[in-house]
Amino acid sequence: MKYSTVDEWQGRYFGEAYLEIYARLMYERKKVLREVDFIQNALHLKKGSRILDLACGFGKHLVFFLKKGLCAFGLDIMHPYLRYAMGKMPVTFRKKPPLVIGTMTRLPFQEETFEAIVSLFNSFGYRPMDAPDPDMAILREVARVLRTGGQFLVEVPNKQPVIKMVRTTPQTIQCGRDFLIHEFWDYDTQWKILFNRTFFNIRGGITEAGYCLRLFTLRELTALFQNAGLGVQRIFGDYDGAEYDRAISPMMLVIGEKPGRQRVKALSHGKRQY
Ligand SMILES: C[S@@+](CC[C@H](N)C(=O)[O-])C[C@H]1O[C@@H](n2cnc3c(N)ncnc32)[C@H](O)[C@@H]1O
Questions:
Q1: What is the pLDDT along the chain (274 residues), one digit of tens a residue?
Q2: What's the gap in Å between 272 CA and the centre of ligand 1?
Q3: Residues 161, 248: contact at Cβ < 8 Å?
Q4: 70 and 197 assigned to the same domain
Q5: 224 and 142 within one domain
Q6: Which of the residues 27, 97, 205, 228 has an alpha carbon 20 to 30 A from that of 216?
Q7: Ligand 1 centre and the CA of 169: distance in Å?
Q8: Do residue 120 and residue 181 come from a single domain?
């Protein structure tokens, strides 16, 4: 299948500088393992469970899913990231790596393929420059390729603390021995979009990039899930399994389920309050 073209912003933001910093200079093995353990427990994944890491990036979670014996696949739009992921895989997978290049809005898989799908580290909610919002298309594809009873876990930033951060600290800096990330933040209240402008500085070489990300309330995300035929099951506020608190949680970890036909009807009429 032909994969979709990379938007200019994607190519710029998810380029070499991002890869160098997040995959090499800032990579924290322990943190990733903790996240993978949490996901495995929360979704009750066993050896052989079929899971899709949607927008897997350079494969930081995918590699551990495979090491844990899950039947894991990764999909991403950035070819260089998949190439990097392949290099990190256990050797047995390198001949035929479970990696797929493509877009989240058109998944190249059959109906009912996966028992679980995950979208991690803010991969959901991006706004392309000149195209319609992709959220519903992504969720419909997730619902299509999930098995009945299968689960979808999405990690998105928690809106309230992010907006507070933008207001109090519209510029942030993170640095390490060989790099500095200087970010400028803004939030559009009407469109509910977070604007980011980033300067990646690696040993003096500077790359300028940025992105636009829709920030969701739990109610909005729940409504999107329901429109796609997914029921929201559980919500956590971090990878330690803390209860979600909209004022202080660093993130929203929402777990949805693809119910049987009967329940889809009930979901679309139900009024669940958050
Ligand atoms: C913030 S990174 C997160 C990557 C990974 N999940 C992680 O935890 O490191 C977002 C990823 O989304 C990918 N991406 C953005 N738009 C996409 C699309 N339409 N289809 C597939 N992947 C996309 C980017 O290439 C990037 O690897």
A1: 344 567 778 889 999 999 999 999 999 999 999 999 999 999 999 999 999 999 999 999 999 999 999 999 999 999 999 999 999 999 999 889 999 999 999 999 999 999 999 999 999 999 987 778 999 999 999 999 999 999 999 999 999 999 999 999 999 999 999 999 999 999 999 999 999 999 999 999 999 999 999 999 999 999 999 999 999 999 999 999 999 999 999 999 999 999 986 555 555 444 443 3
A2: 30
A3: yes
A4: no
A5: yes
A6: 27
A7: 26
A8: no
Domain match, 230 and 179 both: no
* Separation of CA 22 and ligand 1 centre (Å): 13
Based on the domain organization, do 125 and 243 belong to the same domain?
A: yes
Q: What is the CATH number of the domain that holds 130?
A: 3.40.50.150
Same domain membership, residue 235 and residue 182: no
Q: In this structure, are 121 and 18 located in the same domain?
A: yes
Question: Into how many domains does the chain fold?
Answer: 2
Whole-number Å distance, alpha carbon 77 to ligand 1 midpoint, is: 7
Is 106 inside a domain boundary?
yes
Q: Whose CA is nearest to atom 12 of ligand 1?
A: 55
Counting ligand 1 atoms within 8 A of each CB, the residue from 32, 76, 145, 253 with the most, and so the one to mutate, is 76
Nearest CA to ligand 1 atom 16: 77
User: Ligand 1 center to residue 232 CA distance, Å?
Assistant: 23
> Ligand 1: residues within 6 Å at CB?
10, 14, 55-57, 60-61, 76-78, 81, 103-104, 120-123, 126
User: Would residue 2 count as lying in a domain?
Assistant: no
